[in-house]
Write a structure and sequence with these properties.
By secondary structure, this protein is of the alpha/beta class. About 40% of the residues lie in helices and about 20% in strands.
Length: about 475
C-alpha cells in the first residue's frame, strides 16, 4: 500500500485513483492505484508554504545532500528492484539507471560547494555587485512511470540544493521505487534536524497533480511526462506566473547517411527501440535511410532484436521486458497499426504485457509525427541529405536526434541541422553527451532547460545587491 509523507508523518493512502495496477510480467491485476486525499494534499501544501525555504547555509546543505547520497546509494539495489517490478523494465537496465539515484545528490552538493548560487560583478567605480540565487519557495516535482526514482532524485536534489521545500508526486502507475527513495531522504533529513515540511510525498493521478501545481503556494514546478499533462501544467503555472520546467517526450529521428555502416545503424536502432522496453522519451521515432535500403536495414535491426532474451524483468539475464500495463500496450498497438505502411516485426515473445518491437516501412510521413512511447518506429527513405534532414525535422517534437556516418565531420555537419535539443553522432546510449551539458528541448518536447546545473538553477531566482551612489536624471537636490 502506498503511503504519503506529510509534514513528517507517514500516512496510508486510501483514495482510489481509478486505475487498476498490474504486474507487467504476468498481466495480473495487483490492486487499485491509491492516492492522497484532498485533506492530506492541503496539509502538505500549507506546511510547505509555512516553511517557505530551507534556512541553512549552502555549505551545510551540501553536507546534508552528501549524506543523502550515501544513504540512497546503499538503498539503490532495493529501489531499482521495485522500479523493475512496477515498470517491466529489466533489472539490468534499472540497475544502470540506479547510479543517478545517489549521483544526483552528490552532484548537487558539489555545485553548492563550488559556489554556484553566489557570484559578483565589478562596477566601473570598483564597487562589487553581489548576485545571489535564492529559492523560489515551495516547489512541486512530478515524475512519470518509466524511470520515476532516478528522475525524482534529480529533481529533488536540485530543489533541495536551491533551498526549496519540495512536494514530490510520482506516477500512480509506478509509485513504489520513488516511495522507497523518499523514505531514505526523509530519514537523513530527520537525522540532520531539517524541518519536517522540507520534503513531502503525495500520491495519485492527474487530479492530485492538478491540485498541487495549480496551488498558488507552490512557486515552481518541474514536470516530466506526456504532452497532454504538460499542457495542463503549463496552463496552471501561467495563471500564477510561476516558473515551470517541462520535459514532454519526443519523436526522435536517426539519420543513416549514405556512407553509414549498416551494422552500426541496426545496432543503434535496435537499442533505441528496446531500451526501457521502448518506453522512454529519447527512443527511436523515425529511422531515415537512403532510398532502396529500407528493407535491408530493417531486417538487420530485427535480427539484432531477435537475439535479445525476454522473460521476467527481475532476471538479470533478461534483455527486453513487458510494457507497464495492458492498457498502454493496447494504445501502442493501435498507434502502430494506425501508421499504415508495411509492418516488420521481430519474432520476440514474452510473458505478460510483452510486445514485439516493430518497424513500419512506407508510412506517410504526415502520419508519423506523434510520439508512440513504445517499441515502434517508422522507416522513411530519402534521395538527398536535404530530404533526410527535412524528414528528421518534420515533427513538432525536438528532443533528441541521431546521425550515423563514416565521415564524422560530414555527420556532425548534418547533426547541426537537426532541430533537437541534443543530437548524437554515431552513438545511441541512454546517457547525455556530457554530464554538464544542458538537456534542452525544442518545440512541444518541453520548456525550460534541464541539466545537472540547469535544473538546480531553475529552482532559484537571482537577487542583485550593490551600492550605486547614483540618482535619477531628473531628480533635484
Amino acid at each position: 500500500m502506498t503511503k504519503d509523507l506529510i509534514n513528517g508523518t507517514w500516512r496510508a493512502c486510501t483514495t482510489a485513483v481509478g486505475v487498476d495496477l498490474e504486474n507487467p510480467a504476468t498481466g495480473e491485476v495487483t490492486g487499485p492505484a491509491l492516492g492522497s486525499s484532498e485533506t492530506g494534499a492541503e496539509e502538505a501544501l500549507a506546511a510547505a508554504d509555512a516553511l517557505g525555504s530551507w534556512d541553512l547555509p549552502a555549505t551545510d546543505r551540501a553536507e546534508v545532500l552528501d549524506r543523502i547520497a550515501a544513504a540512497v546509494g546503499a538503498a539503490a539495489p532495493e529501489i531499482v528492484a521495485l522500479e523493475s517490478a512496477a515498470t517491466g523494465v529489466p533489472i539490468r537496465q534499472t540497475t544502470g539507471l540506479g547510479m543517478i539515484l545517489a549521483g544526483a545528490f552528490a552532484l548537487a552538493a558539489g555545485q553548492l560547494r563550488a559556489g554556484v548560487l553566489t557570484s559578483t560583478a565589478t562596477r566601473e567605480d570598483g564597487r562589487e555587485v553581489l548576485v545571489e540565487r535564492l529559492p523560489w519557495g515551495p516547489a512541486a516535482c512530478l515524475v512519470p512511470w518509466n524511470a520515476p526514482a532516478p528522475m525524482a532524485a534529480h529533481k529533488v536534489a536540485s530543489a533541495l540544493a536551491a533551498g526549496c521545500p519540495v512536494v514530490l508526486k510520482p506516477s500512480e502507475y509506478a509509485p513504489y521505487g520513488t516511495e522507497r527513495l523518499a523514505a531514505v531522504i526523509d530519514t537523513v533529513l530527520r537525522d540532520a534536524g531539517a524541518p519536517p515540511a522540507l520534503f513531502q510525498l503525495l500520491h495519485g493521478g492527474a487530479a492530485v497533480g492538478s491540485r498541487i501545481v495549480s496551488d498558488p503556494r507552490i512557486r515552481a514546478v518541474s514536470f516530466t511526462g506526456g504532452l497532454g499533462g504538460g499542457r495542463a501544467v503549463a496552463a496552471a503555472c501561467a495563471y500564477d506566473i510561476k516558473p515551470v520546467q517541462l520535459e514532454l517526450g519526443g519523436n526522435n529521428a536517426l539519420i543513416a547517411l549514405p556512407d553509414a555502416d549498416e551494422g552500426a545503424v541496426a545496432r543503434a536502432a535496435a537499442d533505441l527501440l528496446t531500451t526501457l522496453n521502448g518506453q522512454w522519451c529519447r527512443a527511436l521515432g523515425r529511422l531515415i535511410v537512403p532510398a532502396g535500403r529500407a528493407e535491408a536495414i530493417a531486417a538487420l535491426v530485427m535480427a539484432r532484436i531477435d537475439d535479445l532474451r525476454t522473460g521476467d524483468p527481475a532476471d538479470p539475464a533478461t534483455d527486453y521486458g513487458p510494457l507497464i500495463h495492458s492498457g498502454h500496450r493496447a494504445a501502442v498497438v493501435k498507434a502502430r497499426d494506425d501508421l499504415g505502411g508495411t509492418l516488420v516485426a521481430s519474432d520476440l515473445t514474452g510473458p505478460g504485457n510483452t510486445l514485439a518491437p516493430a518497424l513500419v516501412i512506407g508510412a506517410d510521413p504526415a502520419r508519423t509525427t506523434g510520439e508512440i512511447f513504445g517499441p515502434v518506429a517508422a522507416v522513411h527513405t530519402y534521395q538527398t541529405v536535404d530530404e533526410a534532414v527535412a524528414l528528421a525535422n518534420g515533427t513538432r517534437y525536438g528532443l533528441e536526434g541521431y546521425v550515423f556516418g563514416a565521415d564524422e565531420a560530414a555527420a556532425l555537419a548534418v547533426a547541426r541541422r537537426v532541430r533537437a535539443g541534443e543530437v548524437k553522432v554515431n552513438g545511441s546510449s541512454i546517457m547525455s553527451l556530457h554530464l554538464f551539458t544542458p538537456r534542452p528541448a525544442w518545440g512541444i518536447s518541453g520548456y525550460s532547460v534541464e541539466g545537472t546545473a540547469e535544473t538546480l538553477l531553475f529552482f532559484t531566482n537571482p537577487r542583485v545587491v550593490g551600492v550605486e551612489n547614483g540618482f535619477a536624471l531628473h531628480s533635484r537636490s
